[in-house]
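Issue 218. Parser rejects a valid record. Input:
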Amino acid sequence: MASYKIFVIVVTFKGMQWYDRCFTSLRESTIPVQTIVVDNASNDGTVEYIREHFPEIHLIESKENLGFGKGNNLGLRYAYENGCDYVFLMNQDTWLDGADVVEKLVMLSQRYPDYGIVSPMHISPDRQSLNMMLELGSSVYTERILSDLYCGTVKEIYQTNYVNAAAWLLPRKTLSVLGGFDPLIFHYGEDDDYLNRARYHGIKVGISLDQRIVHDHKTGVYKDWSEKLSRKSDLDDLEVFLDLNTPFDYHALRRCWFLRYLKSVIKGNAETRNLAAYKMKYLRKMRVPIENSRKTNMIKQPNWIQ
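Output the parser choked on:
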């Protein structure tokens, strides 16, 4: 196999319980990788632990919590500027299920160069179930996979609309077109936006049923559920507004919410009135950043990492 310069990027934040399994699996990779850790201002001894136990890791310390996307962008910038052929993004709560996973994914990418993002399957730590978010997006894709699984004719790669970014292999050419994650999104939804941009630029996303990582995913809990709902609503709006595959018509959106506001005032519906007022305020606040972001992401270039 040809020699490739492969960087693995792991963004850490108070994940001490996973570091041994994650970084040891990378250390044992059958294909050489340079691991980059971007630490999001952990205060649990993460930096000291990595320096002592995994001195081969290139450590980037952030003085603040940048979130998933901007944290990864620091690592992507380092990898891109240092001549990466491939970048493999991994969550801190994952580890390779086999020493040859990265090598096999790179070989797969070489055989299917039209796929700009390739992911392994994610399994739970007990290996009893899948632990991933996957959207095939087409009944044809689903039927093909089910048929191949049943008949024992599984293909090397299958196209998908969505797979979460806990384990993405990105060739350099993908970074040259898409760059990194949009910094407008702090945490959750970055992968949705990145895949929307990939679809806009004609980049295919694939999954390998034969390669696996273990993903010890645990859903976080918000102490204030109203805060969770508010953030989720804003995030949903932002994902839609940033999606290059659909238009962003600020005036039409504002007109729609203004009419809902007037109707709610007439009907005396305080809940709808407050929601409409909030949406109009949010649109005013985010209009310029969204429009600027969309213009930037429409251009094929290493956005957000240069």
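Fixed in the parser; the record now loads. Residues 219-231 have pLDDT under 50 and may be disordered.
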